Queue: 4 jobs
Job 1
Amino acid sequence: MSPLHLTTKLPLLASRTARRHCLGLQTTSFSASSRAKSPRPDATALLSDLEHLFASPAKSPRADGAPGRSKLSRLPELPPQERHLVHDASNTGQLDGNPAKHLAVDIGGAQRLFDCIFLRDSCTCPQCVDPHSRQKLFQTSDIPPNLKGRYELTGDEETGLSVEVLWENDVPGYGPEHRTRHSIDWLCRALSTALELRNEAQTDVKVLWDKDTITKNNKWVEYEAWMAEDEVLYDALSHLNKYGLLFLKGVPESEESVVNIAGRIGLLKDTFYGRTWDVRSKPRAENIAYTPQFLGLHMDLLYTSNPPHLQLLHSLRARAPRGESFFSDSFHAAHKLRAKSEVHFRKLCTYPVPYHYHHPTHHYHHTRCTIETLRAMKHDEAIPPIHRVNWSPPFQAPFDKHIGGGYQPALRDYVAAAHAFEKLLSAKSNVYEYRLEEGECVIFDNRRVLHARRAFDATKGERWLKGAYVDDDVFFSRLRVLQERFEGRWTADGVAREVVK
Ligand SMILES: [Zn+2]
């Protein structure tokens, strides 16, 4: 099964530096061999661009409004749908040198328009962003709507070519000395990101898997290396992001080990089960997980508004016969279902399923559709990418909608769709089974990979897992920090952004 690589190739071109940024938006997919940090722009190339710019016959870069054009004019034309971004309005600055609400900046030989409000709002000078806290020191809402600016081109070896905007009017409290500087590289990247978001492009690194795929691609990481080496951690977290499943071995026999493992990602998620919790059988268990019974494929805590992203299970005792864990990629099953029956797929996208945890001291309740797509689905539209799957039969509450009042096929249609989906989830060819040994730990994406357990014989020995959760924000924060450090880019809202100054 090949990765889902959905992205746009952008036509934006600028200096050699910016070109690398703007064309480099291919995928966040990662392999150990391609891990080199993306190199800083070649300073010589930058300087040569700068020299060319300032040595061009038009002495002032603003005189013809198209700095460096001759050198860059061989770059490809913009596709028609992007041409409206090219300057042709008389109220635009820089072509005539007058202050304006929109400024045209030459990026790769094309005049790109930037709204002054955007340029002003993203100012990072020490007056606008506190250098220590990195917090913004003015409010977007205080930017005057009639804001006008003009810019001068400037440059240095560190950031390359930049525009320095002089404001005709400004946010109250800012004097005439206030200037906003943005590098061409940064503007180019901002424009690329805006275009990708507008085109709803998604950089999706997920590899959907069945039993064969995951058996071939499973990853095992040594506990010591996980704890000590950031590069190993990045490699492992990238794999986890791709497949939703990861195994650790050599984990010390301690109730604290799962805390240490999760701590490398960030804060643990505390729930009413505790900061960590034990999966071992006990009499009159308040949760089916605490019995030796078979436990079918499910996700945890769907009855809360933000279910945990990651679940960790560390095996401290595996001395009872059986009790194998098994896993299934719900995204894979959802894709299969969509290919098999769009009617079933749409039903799972729209039918509300309530989940609950209803006990004397805790009462959680949350309703979710089984499949969530990335964008709202219009009736006649192609189906957008899958965002989430919600599947947790043991924690389902009674249905609230479409339950009576004459002939309402909705509930019956839902059951038929759920039945088809369950068949795919639990198909032998889609399920990966593994019996966790002592000293091993599994980490999985609780919003994607379903987990289950075979029954075990609690009379013949002990079975004890120590569990913990990690939230999505915590996981993606660590992943971004490491991605920025090792790859020179980071991903948010499905768009990979190059690190530029
Ligand atoms: Zn500023």
Note: The mean pLDDT is 82.
Job 2
Amino acid sequence: MKSSLILAFTAGLQLAAAHTTVFQVQINDKPAPRGDGRSPGSKATQYIREVSSNKPIYLGDQHMACNNPGTPVPVWLDVKAGDKISALWHHDDMKNNRDPVLDPSHHGPVQVYIAPSSNITGNSWVKIASDVWTKDGHDPRNDKVTGTYGTDRLISKSGVQTFTMPSVAAGNYLLRPEIIALHGASKDAKQAQMYMACIQVKVSGNGSPLPAGIKLPDSYTGAPGGGLVLDLYIKDSGRTYKPPGGPVVRIG
Ligand SMILES: [Cu+2]
């Protein structure tokens, strides 16, 4: 009896300590197949570039663009301008819905970038969405964080991060949803936890060429104002906080 109690307790600790990944995508509210190749038999439908664990990526990591190892996968999802895209996040490979998608201590912005799949190492990542902070709302754990961060909203939406597919020229692209968790980064940018995925999409139609964007990992720095340091526990510190990557870019 005693040993099974200890086991249960240890399992609970592992979940609490766990982080998060994108495991699937919805297009116009219709679920695509499981996309991360991490459940049995799902390699054949994998459209999210390979990610070996739900651990964060830290400042300076060469895997900042597409997570680790971030290698290309077989499938490209068909999308078109104006589609409602949702990235589904969960900390647990098996998507146990009783657990939070992300530990509620993980406050920070939730963003999306797009890049042409032919160039992911240049100034090619264009920010198309960013949910940073709003004054209203409150932290569910009452942990002295004021206002509501993108992560808080993501948790309250059960890990569903929704954005609109911009009108880009036909071709293959990577969509890159991103979470930046700043709970440990009140002073040290090296403690900021980045979570991201590269979703492979094939765009039809004839929208605009992508403008220049930022470079990953180089544009994410620990410099003052770089967006990787924030004391979340100072009242309303989210008000003046600006996330990395600059403003959202309007395409077209
Ligand atoms: Cu974490």
Note: The helical segments are 2-17, 150-156.
Job 3
Amino acid sequence: MTCRFCEAKQVEHWFGSWCSQCRQIKNLCNVYGYERVLEILKKCCIRDEDQLEKKIEKHKKQDHGDESYEKPKTRSKAEKI
Ligand SMILES: [Zn+2]
């Protein structure tokens, strides 16, 4: 059966109505409140084109400059031990 929320993935359990991802979303809503989660989503995800471009540019400059990604030094150090 298909998830009733995203209507794309298969449900987590045969007796359930939600897929595992949507279940996580629902759990977050239960913890923080549906109104608060909706507010956060609106503030963070709904942006006009100009805002999106600015955010993408900012992200590119801040982080790695391009698509390449280097592991943090602390992580690689930890792996050696
Ligand atoms: Zn779903």
Note: The chain has a mean pLDDT of 82.
Job 4
Amino acid sequence: MSSKQILPSEEIIQQYGSSLVGKTILITGVSGDSIAGELAIQLSAAKPHLLILSARAEDRIAPIVEKIKAMAPHVATKFLKMDLGDLNDIKTAVDTTLHDISKINHLACVAGIMVPPYGKTKDGFETQFGVNYLANFLLVKLLLPKVRAAGVGASITLVSSSAARTGKIDFEDIGFSDGRTYEPLTAYCQSNAAEVMFVKILAENWMVKESGPSALILVVCNHGLNHSQSLLDAELSSVSEGGT
Ligand SMILES: NC(=O)c1ccc[n+]([C@@H]2O[C@H](COP(=O)([O-])OP(=O)(O)OC[C@H]3O[C@@H](n4cnc5c(N)ncnc54)[C@H](OP(=O)(O)O)[C@@H]3O)[C@@H](O)[C@H]2O)c1
């Protein structure tokens, strides 16, 4: 296969999906129109044991659960209510909803925000830095023992973006002078660069020490362009603000 060849996800699942049979998979960012929602539906075809679907509100995952029940009635689903803009909520969600889950074979951190107007998370961080990077950092830290407990072939995937390539971390002023110098795209690139660096450092510090058959698979990826609702919203707001 050439490096430029793109396989439809259905084909990938057909070829490699047998490794997901009976597995527990946690996906963040699940909603009717998100990439994570589609991922959940497609993965259900591979007969995992349990899909843990995370969103801020249960009604966001409802249409996805309905489709999974229709397509793969034997696949169990569990709702994980978690606001990635609130570090305390992440900890509470993991402690309460996941206390009885001992192993997670695959963790897919897909939730993210793209170029919103300036805002802050509950903890006071610029929203994109907080949601796209800090939240994933904490979630991975909290769930690492459960993923490691799943053993050989377990994986953690963070969805970033090609925006990471031009991203720079402004260590002197991560929060854009409290919004005064905020540029949505620069902040998006910064948050994505932070995600990529996090996975790289995690891989270097951990995987190298733990190489061998029990090693985790750590991935940070860009899935390509998809015209999602948040991109549409960003485009509409740039049009209404006189942008292109
Ligand atoms: N779309 C693209 O073309 C593209 C390209 C490259 C990379 N990406 C990356 O791919 C990921 C997913 O993109 P997408 O197109 O699926 O975006 P999307 O349609 O906007 O979906 C984002 C998901 O993240 C959730 N989310 C946002 N803020 C959250 C928070 N504070 N707590 C919990 N969940 C939150 C949203 O929940 P709500 O429904 O509650 O808002 C939604 O389910 C993002 O990380 C993005 O950076 C996207």
Note: The beta strands are 24-28, 50-55, 76-81, 106-109, 155-159, 217-221.
